[in-house]
Structures are given as C-alpha cells and as structure tokens.
Amino acid sequence: MATATRLKGFGAAFVAAAGAYGALSIRDPILSENDKGDIENVRRRIADINAVVPSREVQESALMGTSAINPLDVLVVGGGATGCGVALDAASRGLRVGLVEREDFSSGTSSRSTKLIHGGVRYLEKAVFNFDYGQLKLVFHALEERKQVIQNAPHLCHALPCMTPCFNWFDVVYFWLGLKLYDLVAGPRLLHLSRYYSAKESVELFPTLASKGKDRSLKGTVVYYDGQMNDARLNVGLACTAALAGAAVLNHTEVISFIKDEASERIIGARVRDNLSGKEFATYAKVVVNAAGPFCDSVRKMVDKDAPSMICPSSGVHIVLPDYYSPEGMGLIVPKTKDGRVVFMLPWLGRTVAGTTDSNTEITMLPEPHEDEIQFILDAISDYLNVKVRRTDVLSAWSGIRPLAMDPRAKNTESISRDHVVCEDYPGLITITGGKWTTYRSMAEDAVDEAIKSGKLSPTNACLTDRLQIVGGDGWDPASFTVLAQQYVRMKKTYGGKVVPGAMDSAAAKHLAHAYGTLAERVATIAQNEGLGKRLAHGYPFLEAEVAYCARHEYCESAVDFIARRCRLAFLDTDAAGRALPRIVQILSAEHKWDKSRQKQELQKGKEFLQTFKSSKNAQFHDGKHTGKDQSYLKPVLNTVPCRWDW
After folding, report:
1. Is 99 within 8 Å of 418 (Cβ atoms)?
2. Among the CATH numbers 3.40.50.11540, 3.30.930.10, 1.10.8.870, 3.30.710.10, which is that of 479-612?
3. What are phi and psi of 434, to 5 degrees?
C-alpha cells in the first residue's frame, strides 16, 4: 500500500510539474534599449582585464564622505553571498552603494557550505508526498537560479554528476522516477539528463562504491546532475565585481550603532568602526539592508532590543578526506542514513568533501564541529564504500551555521522556512535572511526591490544580475589553462636566495584558470616576474604569487583571509595550512608593510583559527576515539622560519 501510494504520488507530481510552467514560467525578461545600454556599460567595466578594484583607502573615503544631505542610496551590512549580491545588484542599477563586513567577505556561513548549487531533491520529494505546492515552487525557483549561477561564474562553478546507489529494485524505480521528475521540473534549465547505470557500470564509474555488504547487493545507481562551486572565491568575486560596478565595499569594518532621524525615527545611517585601524566614522544612507546572515538578529536588536528573533540557527558539519575516497568528477549521495538524513560525498578541489549534519546550535563567530558529528558522517559513508573509512584520514572538518528564517510578521512560528524572508520591521532597515547559496542572486534582487520602495530610490535601470557575469567570468574558456602552461614559468627563490625557473605545470595552470578566470595571467605574471612561483604547500597547486595578488586586488587583509577565503587550504588540509602560514604572513607583511608585532599577531590568529578545524592531527585519540583538542602540531611550525619552499 505504501509503495503504491508513493508511485501514485509521482504520477500526480509529473502532471503538476508539466502543468506548472504556465504559472511558473522561466523568467527571461525583455530589456529595454536603455537597460541594454546600461548592462553593456557595466559589463565593460567588469570584463576589462586591466581594471583594478579601488583601494581600501579609497573605499573607506567614499563611506566617510557621506552626510545627512549627501547619503548613499543603500548601505549593506554583511559581506556574505547575499550581502555582496545586494551590493552588486544595487550598484548595477545605478544606485550609490556601500557595504561593510565585520570580518572578511564570506567569513561566515557562505564559506562553509556543501559547495553544491542545487534545486533541492529532498524538497521535491516533500512536495510530491505532502502535495505541497509551495515546496514545488521553491524547487522550480532554485533550479532556475542554479543554471544562472553557473553561467555567471563559469570558472568557479560547474555541473557535477551525483550517484545514488540502489540496493533493491524498488529503489531503482523510485529514484529513477524521482530524478526524472527533477529533470522535468528543471525544464530548459536542465544541466544534463539523469540516467540509470547497472551495478557493473556503477563500480566502473565509482571504484570505491561497495557492491555487496550487510546482506544486500547493489542493483544499480541513478546518476543525476547538480552544480558545484568554490563558494568563498565566488563570494569574494561578487565583492570585487560590486566594487568595479561602483560600490564602496569594506571588509573588517563593523556597525557599532545606527543613526536615526529624530523627527521621523527612521534609520538614516550607521556608525561604523574599521577594525584594522580602530577608526570610527558615520556613514549615511537612505536605506540600510541587513544581510548579516546568522547575525541578522543582533543587527536588528541594535535598533530595537525587544525585536522578535527571526533566526533559528542550524549547524551543518563537513569533513574533508583524501581524493581516493571518490573519483574525480563523480559525487555520491547516501539518500537515507540511519536517522533519515541525507549525506553527500563529493570531489572538490582535488579532495573529497563529505557532509552534512543538521542540528540545533548556538550562534558563534567560529563554530566548531563536535566529534560525534564527524563520526556520524564517517559512519554514514562507510556503509556505502569498500575502503576502510578512518578518522585519521580526516584532513579538515568544519561547522557552518545555516540561518533558517522565521518571518517576524507571521502570526505563528510553527513553520521555519527554507525560503528567504525580506522584511522592514523598522523604518529604513530592511532585513534579508534565510534561503540558500543557490538563490543568493534572486534574494538580493528582492532586497533591492524592497529598498527602492522604502527609500523612494531612483535606479537608472532594472535588475541586470540575471545576465551579468562576475569578474573573471566574461570570455572565460575552459582551455585557457593551456596558455598559462605554455607561456609562463614559475620563478622560484631557493632557500639560498637563488632564483630558478620551474614549469607552470598543468595542476598549477588549471588551478589559476579556475580560481581567477580571465585574470589568471595577472597571477602568473607575478609568479614569473617577482620570483613568487613556489607552491605554498606540498601536494597543492596554490602559489606564493596568489598571496601578493590577493593582497593587491582582492582586499586580502590578513593571513586568515588568505588561507580560508582566497585559497581554500584551511578547508582542504588544516595541517598543510599550518605549515604554509609563516610564508603567507611573510608575503602579506611585505605587501601591507606590517611591523614585527603585527606579524606575530597574524601568526597567532592563524593558529587560533586553524584550531577550530578538527582534522585528525587536531585531535587526540584513545582506542580510536577522539578525546580532546591538541594543537601542538602547530607550535613548532608557527615559531620557526619557513623551511625550503621549493615545490
């Protein structure tokens, strides 16, 4: 009976999905001639390979230069995906925009995602069996945005096949029908068609997949496609693109209070502090957009300490394992764990990322994964693999906080939304929260639309971001790495100070092409001309030249900014990041003219940051079980000068 009901649900869903295109047609707005001219002007500024983002000093001066009679149109609080998306959207509409971020761009939730750009297979399943049209609309919308994100940042995003193992024939039929429905709902935004593979074919595609075990045998797999991204670099790219579009973006700058108009009680700006210099100043704006993610309630309570909470925080833990756990170019989905959750195992930047958990948590600046959550993920994937899954293989582990949203205007709080919420519960302060990475662009569009209404703003054109590629994306070619490999060399300084040439090998060239897009040659030029061509860590393609480039052109202001967000070494391999830290500080010190005290401070902050990543070497064991923290492996690294950097 249950089986028949589930299959009937699919039949109804196919009919609903096929008929829904009338009400939920894929948006392809027709631009006016004026809008076409505007988007070409913005595109030219962003795509210019000689364009340079304004310096931090210029950006700060722009924010300081505002006043009550000469305000910004929009001030954005928060430099995550949504906040930077809002800044880019508003700036590309011709509005005068500022953005402040307490830490670094993507320092919070936006750098700690599953790295998937997805429509939500689970939400589609709920829509089908709960006959929930609202969930179906969420999936339609997310699939529309999924393709858009990939098109807007082709160097940082790509389609990824994901394999769903089936150990009985009912599962084969069930997942095949469900994923065909997922294809149907995607419509013209489909990445690639899903398909069934036999058990033999599946093992050939995914050699570590277990074909037998625990009184069951693999009947086959269903492979479907979603998108994958380098989340933090995409976020940093959005910030730099917004800067090129005219927004004044400033990281390491926090709001300490809001400014109200005494007569109308409307928010007209904020008092902010540059956390690098300690300088405080006022920035005025017609509208303030609160895009602080999990911390949006803290921002709201600056205005009204009794404001009802909007955020129900949820913790998502991920771990990184060696590359041999999954083949390059194929992910694995554990559709149902022992407690009913879904776990992904995906190839990412030459390693394997696995997760995630979903549990209640406290909101903190640096959330840490609990050992039982790490063990849960290891246990979940071990049932599906033919390799021994070991805690000692964990190269890095991190926790991120999902800001699940509740609308403060709702009459009850029983429905916590996976969709986003935009509200103005205090005049002049608009809050945007909830949603997910995949839909950041449309979330930003909704927030800017609301800001325009609230502040009676006068944009020069309609929203352009649905067809606006971020910096490095316009004209990018997947084969562009060959130019780097053939035309550049990596000049490396040996331990004795001699500069020797080294090949720009395919691994380094591909990394630069994907991380920086059409701007990769700038980084290669630094590697060749300034003797910064060595690798930062053995076994990884990250180059010393990237540290200098990011300090000059990507607002990289600290060692943690680099190891966590500009390159992803902290997330890929905590131990390798610890070994690279002294050299990174050395290069940043030369770029930013740090004194000895600041260098020491950067080493210490980097050490403390890496302690929140629970790799196998960042833990103690007894009989194979984790018993506590041990960061001694970092101490000798951080208190000595670098050894030979000749990789």
Report:
1. no
2. 1.10.8.870
3. 80, -155
C-alpha 225/C-alpha 195 separation (Å) is 10
Domain-by-domain residue ranges, the chain? 48-111+233-310+406-455, 157-227+312-402, 479-612
Q: What are phi and psi of 563, to 5 degrees?
A: -70, -20
Question: Tokens 């000595």 map to which residue?
Answer: 640
Query: What does DSSP assign to residue 53?
Result: P
Q: How far apart are CA 70 and CA 505, in angstroms?
A: 52
Token readout for 379 is: 């246990």
* Residue 439 in tokens: 């839909």
Q: How far apart are the first and last CA of the chain?
A: 62
CB 282 within 8 A of CB 258: no
Is the per-residue pLDDT at 213 higher than 80? no
Output DSSP code: residue 523. Answer: H
User: Per-residue pLDDT tens for 445-464?
Assistant: 999 999 999 999 999 999 99
Distance CA 597, CA 366 (A): 24
**DSSP reduced 3-state for 357:** coil
Percent residues over pLDDT 70 in the chain: 88
> CA torsion, points 536, 541, 545, 546, in degrees to nearest 10?
-100
Dihedral angle, C-alpha 152, 157, 161, 162, nearest 10 °: -110
**DSSP letter assigned to residue 562:** I
215: tokens are 């009184």
Q: Which CATH number is 157-227+312-402 given?
A: 3.30.9.10
Contact (Cβ atoms closer than 8 angstroms) between residue 295 and residue 91: no
Tens of pLDDT, residues 369-420: 999 999 999 999 998 999 999 999 999 999 999 988 876 665 443 455 568 9
Please report where in the chains the tokens 């500009």 appear, as a residue.
566
In this structure, the dihedral spanned by the alpha carbons of residues 149, 151, 152 and 158, taken in order and rounded to 10 degrees, is: 60
Looking at domain 48-111+233-310+406-455, its CATH class is alpha beta
**On the CB side of 160, how many CA atoms lie within 13 Å of its CA?**
31
373 Cβ partners below 8 Å, 6+ apart? Answer: 315, 317, 357, 359, 399
Give me the residue label for tokens 């890095």: 396
Here the tokens at position 359 are 């549990």
What is the tens place of the pLDDT at every residue in 572-587?
999 999 999 999 999 9
- Check the CA dihedral 191-193-194-197 and report its sign: negative
